[in-house]
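Quick one:
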Amino acid sequence: MEEKPLKITVLKSASEYELREKSSLFIAAAFPVYGEDDFDTRLQAVKKEHYKARHHCYAFRLPAGERYSDAGEPSGTAGIRILNTIDHFKLQYTGVIVTRYFGGIKLGAGPLGKAYYEAAYGAIADATKKELTLCVKLTISAPLEEQHNIYNLLSRFQGRNIETHFGEEVIFQFVLLKERHAEFNRAVTDMYKIRLTAGEEFYA
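Output:
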């Protein structure tokens, strides 16, 4: 399995951009997207808002993959060009829909592809972006007398404690930066009474 990047860039908020090319109007909407269902809901909303438009071309990229569509435009002139724009900015969790109101003049494949690219580019360029860091949820189980050592360990590695349970032993659930996970594992191996379990990875 391919390792996830330690840092990614995403859109912080949605943005729109309009472009006119030979009487055709291109309206590009760039927005954060967190799953295919999330994107499909947004696409249906755009189609409803611009129900008179002829084309709603799109692309989105998630860590699990991407999807794009020319939506009736000549093959290769719209969807892949929009995806290329997302990749130009090295974005994840990002969707772009470009709606075209046809103005009666055919543009030709080259100018048409350029128009879709520039519309998508304008929307993404205007959007506020932020960087997310890959984190991992971890659980430590240890005898009660080890809790002081665990607190020191979490402080040393800047782990964020989520929850602590006290019983016959102490259980810490916490979040750690993925880039420090391997080093943390090595530190834990020196404390033979501590058991460490790795959970889900996520960006924050």
